[in-house]
């Protein structure tokens, strides 16, 4: 695999590990969903992935490092003039309101690892974001792509499965980057079917996985009525000893519906008594 050289000093505080392996860059482009959506790239860095992206689609890129912004503006002069590429200089999290841009887009990026989970959750909640093809730390990719029963199955896997389908495309060793990160990486794809599940559902998941080694009912009992939970578990044929990672996404949704219904009933009967 072909590796390129660059002379820029990477800034650790911005999570700069530049992807230099042309084979991996090509795999990312090949895995891009085929549609007319715009591309958003977060952290174009030296522009190695950007070069491939502007060849196939128009791109909106967000880069926090002002030195790299200047470099990108001179490397991509022509693409900027022809509006194939727009570079937003600044922190993407500050620029991100309810939507990052006001038209449908796919996020394609080698993300800065220190904020990768935050970015993915924001993109999952952003109605304009339709798909995501991102490089992150392998351990993080596995959490987003896990199935129930896997030891790393958790709230991130369930939120993702509730919205779309996720798959690991390629695992990437540290040697593909300059400077090399200390961890393995992976590119994974999330194809969204709908927009984000609701916040109360995510709150329930947070409680469900608060102590991953404890039983699910024990965790949930810290917030919800234990007797009602025992009834719901029986209805759904879930054993009382089941652990949070052993329950399928569909069962979490059923459980959530039952919990919400019983909370609504309780609220209603309290209101009629007053
Ligand atoms: N895309 C390039 C590549 O594949 O070689 C660089 C990827 S590097 C892992 C992450 C990039 O994200 C860096 O260019 C870094 O400056 C940028 N970055 C870090 N934090 C950011 C933020 N809050 N907003 C926008 N860009 C950020």
Radius of gyration: 22 Å
Number of strands: 9
Helix content: 40-55%
Give the overall average pLDDT: 94
> Quick one: CATH superfamily of the largest domain?
Vaccinia Virus protein VP39
- Can you count the helices? 12
Polypeptide structure, described:
The protein has 274 residues and is α/β, with parallel strands linked by helices. It contains twelve helices and nine strands. Strand 5, helix 6 and strand 6 (129-137) form a beta-alpha-beta unit. Helix 11 (226-235) packs across helix 12. Bound molecules: S-adenosylmethionine. S-adenosylmethionine binds next to strand 1, helix 2, strand 3 and helix 5.
List the helices and strands and how they pair.
Elements: E1 18-19, H1 22-30, E2 38-42, H2 48-56, E3 59-63, H3 66-75, H4 77-81, E4 85-89, H5 92-95, E5 105-110, H6 116-125, E6 129-137, H7 138-145, H8 155-163, E7 164-172, E8 177-178, E9 185-192, H9 199-208, H10 216-221, H11 226-235, H12 249-273
Parallel strand pairs: 2-3, 2-5, 3-4, 5-6
Antiparallel strand pairs: 1-8, 6-9, 7-9
The protein binds S-adenosylmethionine (SAM).
S-adenosylmethionine binds at residues 14-19, 42-46, 48-49, 62-65, 68, 91-93, 110, 112, 115.
Summarize the structure.
This protein is of the alpha/beta class. The chain has helices spanning 22-30, 48-56, 66-75, 77-81, 92-95, 116-125, 138-145, 155-163, 199-208, 216-221, 226-235, 249-273, and strands at 18-19, 38-42, 59-63, 85-89, 105-110, 129-137, 164-172, 177-178, 185-192.
